[in-house]
Amino acid sequence: MRKLVHKDTQLEVEKGETVIDFRGDSAIVTGWEEPRHSGSTGRVYVRPVDAEWTQGYYPSVFDLKWIDA
User: Fold this and answer.
1) CATH number for the domain formed by residue range(s) 2-68
2) How many angstroms separate the CA atoms of 23 and 14, rounded?
3) Domain regions of the chain by residue span
4) How does the average pLDDT of the chain come out, rounded?
5) Which of 25, 41, 46, 62 has a CA between 20 and 30 Å from the CA of residue 34?
6) Please, are residues 54 and 30 in contact by the beta-carbon 8 Å criterion?
7) SS3 assignment, position 44
8) pTM for the whole thing?
9) pLDDT tens, 2-28?
């Protein structure tokens, strides 16, 4: 099993948490998908603060990474 964490603090990401992308835009974490194989980065799903839709991104867009739990 793997955990999605913030690269700088190693704190685990939680659903409903606000994260900031590399452009400085805020979004709310709605979920994630673990990498399926060694060449995959997985996805983090977020909803922009001012929007009603959800989008999947590479975790690195929000300075996040996967670690073994």
Assistant:
1) 2.30.30
2) 21
3) 2-68
4) 96
5) 25
6) yes
7) strand
8) 0.92
9) 999 999 999 999 999 999 999 999 999
